[in-house]
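Known limitations

Files may contain more than one protein. Parsers should not assume a single record per file. Below, a two-record file is shown to illustrate correct handling: read the sequence, read the token line, then continue until end of file.
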Amino acid sequence: MHVTVYSTRLYDRQALERSPGFGGHSFNFLEARLDASTVATAAGAEAVCVFVNDQLDHKVLQALYTLGVRLVVLRCAGFNQVDLVAAQALGMAVCRVPEYSPHAVAEHTLALLLTLNRKIHRAYARVREGNFALDGLLGFDMHGRTVGVVGTGRIGETFCRLMTGFGCTLLATDPTPNPACIAMGVQYVPLPELLARSDVVSLHCPLTPHTHHLINADAFAGMKRGAMLLNTSRGAVVDTQAAITALKARTLGSLGLDVYEEEGGLFFRDLSGAGIQDDVFARLLTFPNVVVTGHQGFFTEDALAAIASTTLANLNAFAATGKPLYPVSV
């Protein structure tokens, strides 16, 4: 198959090239994101391979279909960037990588937690300047604290397992409780109770109409004062303006983000010479109790290899049978 790959970085290309079965298809690698302004570059392709910040709305999908594209391959688990209703109406198949390494994201979440709690980011900067004072770096023992996990799929389950090793009390909320979490002692409670009781709240749910701005002004008002919030799921699960308000009021103790609701114009790019034009994001960076990483939770050798392998498996299955291995439907 002829495949145009969007939002490509060197590591994406290398992972695909090293994966068995790479030679069975023809790839055109592009750094550009797929949207209405770049869709013409898919001319001649039978499939497009996209990532989290590519935009496949009805207009883009219609243009892709007209160009002859019949398959959309997502190099990620989430699919909120695709208009699935439009794809189905056009008869276009959409597939994804349902899981790659739950450990990668769960461990990155833990890294954010420990960084914020023990002020590692501030201590690192101080020591490099010869400042060894401990004022302002006070943390707390994780042992005995209550951690609330919103969403207990594979990543949420893995994060729960990590936190049991710290001796934490674990609460969770999910429409479908995970038996593995129940077996390790996780207590399922409604979201308001979870927010009110948790010292740390970690988000591991997909972005859907129901979870868009799930953590909003009301949610922040219901959180335990001084609690930590972690989001390594999708940016729009958190209302950023409401988070800033809670940080300014000091009701939110700390915030760790690997995703941001307007990250499309920021993440996966080097803007060090251009400056940040997003005023909301720039405001977030002014808080000493906020740590932001650029959507790198997935970024391990193991995860990249798994993403590449599953992507090729989807392409191979579609080429052989007309159906991808891991389809996404409405």
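...continuing to the second record:
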Amino acid sequence: MSRLLHVSASPRGAESVSLGIAETFAEEYRATHPGAEVDHFDLWDGTLPEFGPAAVAAKMAVIGGAEPAGEQVEPWRAAVRTFERFDSYDRYLFTVPMWNSGLPYKLKQFIDVVSQPAMIFDLGPETGYRPLLTGKRAAVVYTSSVWGPEAGPAFGSDFQSTYFGDWLRWTGITDIQEIRHHPTLTGDYALERKRAGERARQVARTF
């Protein structure tokens, strides 16, 4: 039985477009996958650990073949627990609103916490990175209100999907479905919202 984790990066609750689209996806997924487990990881709920100096030192110790020690131990354990929670699912739904042409900082924090050696990747001096999250699937809801694929550079750039999609593939997740909502300042919001909802249901049915 499949297990789906919704990782949400929007703090806007009921006002969030990305969360609304994700709710449409989850509703359709539950209806078409009876018995499937669907859980939610709200990156703003206070459970995401910091990844500061002690955690970075622990990571470098592990890369160098040593064990974290002293003040490194608990931050490293917190990172491991967060990764294990994430890794226990085989399907992911990410809600990714655009912030300043990129990602919300909580999502970048999540990436930095879970992207650890022997968890997300192996690293060899001659082979480089080897991804470890193979065999999983991801659906990503990308939203923005100003930038759009047809908008000029005065309306921003897309470092949102380019960065996040590259991170997913780097981890080994290559089965990726995108759901987009980019009405821009002059577009038809209602029409684009409807299209995004239809796309969410379409992806969810066979996810």
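Parsers that stop after the first record will miss the second one. For reference, the second record is described as follows. The mean pLDDT is 96.
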